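Lab notebook, design round three. We kept the backbone fixed and only want residue identities now. Task for the bench partner: fill in a sequence for the structure below.
Input structure tokens:
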């Protein structure tokens, strides 16, 4: 197959690697990519991934069989709509359905209409409304920007002043949401949908805070692991959990969006909190999660391209459900000095070859650039630089491998969490 993957993060590199692993004869096109993607793709396409016309013309000219949209920006820009209009198979929702991620108020409305369990929330447009909502819900305070903020528009704090200050920062540009604080472990569960049928992938957990022990600011994600062995304690089995969320969350949301004339064809990412009162949604994303994808896809034992093509083509019901290996996968993100507030970029990264040669380890690049010369230095170009991904028979083994690989990598000022999957490793 000829497949075009849009995006430039570790998630897109993970998607590309999964496609490459399932069938070495795929021709894989990528845009804009990064140094890791460039090394693994057949070709890096010179196009603006956020421009519907450029993407559609390219896919048409190059006889692309399937376009996979990684990040949210092209979805919001209407790239999937343009491709679908031209009859090109695309995995990713149109602009209207992608609002499930782009607008938290839209997501809340859909959840209300579909009867999906979520926390209470108030949409506020003035400081007085924010203050009233903070007092109504009480501490711990949760304040979110109602728009795309790449995982950084949320503050969770016991400090009322800090909650108000966060709202002040976003109110000039639009409304904010004040939410009821939900307490419990978090789970990320992905669903592939063709607008009607849904198929769940294996659950993962990510680590959003910057530092060990869940300290420090929220980030785009510092690490992840999959599967979640402790789900069996609560639900009897992982499958029982997945079935419950499919029935109470994914299916009602997909039905609601379809009923509103905005079918969701793509990846529905449910960010869940397992509260004492049951499973509740904290957020939806309209795309694969990063870094969870890096630990979910290496465990997928059925072909990714078939699954995504069936979703794009509207015949997911006829496809066998995806299956997963009974292995433990761990990913740890290497971040630049100063991430997330003010990442220092442009620094060389060394030791990647040695890291990738640790058994069970591969790298998923995020913000890297430069030549792929033997032991040639790459340059870190952003906050989250790359993911070390390790698979093992046990979490203890996967962790050992991941951290051994990180020990081979040198990036001045680089930092990573040392406690990813520590609890499940026992
Ligand atoms: P979001 O951007 O909505 O995913 O929020 C980022 C992170 O903030 C989540 O993964 C949670 O850890 C935390 N968070 C968001 N909303 C809530 C909430 N209502 N209660 C507790 N934690 C939350
Ligand atoms: N892992 C968080 C996200 O992808 O938004």
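Proposed sequence:
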């Amino acid at each position: 197959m000829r497949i075009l993957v849009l995006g430039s993060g570790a998630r897109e590199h993970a998607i590309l690697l999964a496609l490459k692993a399932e069938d070495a004869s795929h021709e894989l096109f990528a845009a804009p990519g990064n140094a890791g993607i460039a090394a693994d793709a057949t070709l890096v396409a010179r196009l603006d991934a956020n421009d519907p016309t450029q993407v559609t013309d390219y896919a048409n000219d190059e006889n692309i069989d399937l376009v996979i949209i990684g990040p949210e920006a092209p979805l919001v820009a209407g790239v999937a709509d343009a491709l679908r209009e031209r009859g090109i198979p695309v995995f990713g929702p149109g602009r209207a359905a992608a609002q499930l991620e782009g607008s938290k108020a839209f997501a809340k409305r859909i959840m209300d209409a579909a009867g999906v369990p979520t926390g209470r929330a108030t949409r506020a447009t003035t400081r007085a409304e924010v203050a009233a909502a903070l007092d109504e819900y009480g501490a711990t305070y949760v304040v979110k920007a109602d728009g795309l903020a790449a995982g950084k528009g949320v503050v969770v704090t016991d400090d009322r002043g800090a909650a108000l200050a966060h709202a002040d920062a976003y109110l000039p540009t639009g409304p904010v949401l004040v939410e009821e604080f939900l307490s419990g472990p978090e789970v990320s569960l992905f669903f592939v949908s063709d607008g009607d049928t849904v198929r769940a992938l294996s659950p993962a957990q990510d680590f959003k805070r910057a530092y060990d022990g869940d300290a420090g600011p929220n980030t785009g994600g510092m690490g992840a692991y999959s599967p979640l062995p402790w789900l069996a304690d609560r639900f009897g089995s992982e499958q029982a959990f997945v079935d419950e969320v499919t029935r109470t969350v994914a299916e009602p949301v997909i039905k609601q969006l379809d009923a509103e004339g905005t079918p969701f064809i793509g990846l529905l990412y449910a960010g869940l909190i397992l509260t004492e009162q049951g499973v509740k949604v904290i957020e939806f994303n309209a795309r694969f999660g990063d870094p969870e994808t890096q630990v979910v896809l290496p465990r997928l034992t059925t072909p990714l391209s078939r699954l995504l093509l069936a979703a794009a083509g509207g015949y997911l019901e006829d496809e066998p459900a995806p299956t997963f290996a009974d292995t433990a996968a761990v990913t740890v993100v290497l971040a630049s000095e100063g991430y997330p507030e003010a990442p220092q970029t442009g620094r060389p990264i060394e030791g990647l070859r040695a890291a990738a040669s640790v058994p069970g380890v591969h790298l998923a690049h995020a913000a890297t650039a430069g030549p792929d010369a033997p032991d040639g230095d790459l340059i870190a170009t952003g906050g989250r630089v790359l993911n070390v991904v390790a698979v093992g028979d046990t979490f203890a083994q996967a962790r050992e491998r991941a951290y051994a690989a990180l020990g081979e990598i040198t990036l001045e000022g680089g930092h990573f969490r040392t406690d990813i999957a520590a609890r499940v490793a026992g």
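Keep this in mind before ordering anything: The first helix runs from residue 10 to 22.
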